[in-house]
Design a protein that fits this description.
0% strand, 294 residues, mainly alpha
């Protein structure tokens, strides 16, 4: 019976690669939550005592940056587990030798990040702690990339039909990333603001999915993602716990967000343009040591 079960598992991942990736990504998110809770239970109190001099904040569920660090650690643990499970076939997540070249694929992110940084400097009279901004920016850069990009995309690209699945996986993961930001509305965020955030995030997700598909290197999208969020969190008001939920979007802000989204989409189409599809397939054939013939 064991060979039959393995064959059924193989058939499920091959016949429904996108659904398979979604199920695994959802399971990975749940596992990350469990690991995070476990780490907080074991080390949270000690960390709170060291940082704050008291465990009271921990008991109140307000550990600030300690929770941010624990969340990142829990997601990295899940990524390592994912690699361990597929270690015989999966060659890795990085291509450091081409980091500089690959980062330039996200030219729109770098340009918009520079523009927003200048705007932050000119518009704000007060700024938050740069170290805090970096840490807060790193959390979504690491956690969201692992769960909404790396795991689902790499699993889909493990399929023998990877070349045919390039466009579907980009569309699927970018929509998932956009809708993920729509959950802010359940926590009291302004509906109109949330709508524009979803559109903007979908454009960002489209670009990051294209870059990860093209490079197979998670350093790139993590770096670009962290830059985007770190610049935002430089503002003193952005470092408050409910900054994203309480903000509203003016007409000019909405136009800017839509313009950014269009630029990201244009950048993404250039990154995985038609004449690069075979190159993308070859890249993932090297990342996964699996047979591609049917």
């Amino acid at each position: 019976m064991r060979p039959v079960r393995r064959e059924m598992q193989c058939n499920w991942s091959e016949t429904h690669p996108v659904a398979h990736a979604l199920v695994v990504a959802a399971a990975a998110m749940a596992l990350a939550g469990i690991v995070e809770t476990f780490i907080e239970a074991i080390a949270g109190g000690v960390a709170a005592m060291v940082v704050y001099g008291s465990v009271d904040r921990a008991y109140m569920g307000d550990m600030g940056l300690i929770s941010t660090v624990i969340t990142m650690v829990s997601h990295i643990v899940v990524l390592l587990l994912y690699w361990f499970i597929f270690r015989k076939d999966l060659q890795g997540f990085f291509n450091a030798r081409r980091f500089g070249e690959f980062v330039l694929l996200g030219w729109s992110v770098l340009a918009i990040g520079a523009f927003n940084l200048i705007s932050e400097i000119l518009e704000h009279e007060s700024y938050g702690n740069p170290g805090v901004a970096l840490l807060m920016g790193m959390q979504p850069g690491i956690c969201e990339e692992i769960m909404l990009r790396v795991i689902p995309i790499s699993l889909v690209m493990r399929s023998k039909e990877r070349e045919r699945l390039v466009i579907p996986v980009v569309v699927f993961t970018s929509l998932l990333f956009g809708l993920w930001h729509g959950f802010n509305i359940l926590s009291g965020a302004n509906p109109v603001t949330t709508l524009f955030q979803v559109i903007y995030a979908t454009g960002v997700g489209f670009l990051f999915a294209a870059i990860y598909l093209r490079t197979g290197d998670i350093w790139i999208t993590m770096f670009l993602h962290a830059i985007t969020d770190t610049v935002y969190f430089l503002g003193a008001e952005a470092q408050s716990g409910d900054a994203i939920l309480s903000q509203s979007t003016s007409f000019s802000d909405a136009v800017i967000l839509l313009a950014y989204a269009v630029l990201y989409f244009a950048n993404a189409f250039y990154v995985f343009r038609k004449n690069k599809r075979v190159e993308i397939s070859d890249t993932w054939s090297r990342i996964w040591k699996v047979k591609t013939e049917s």
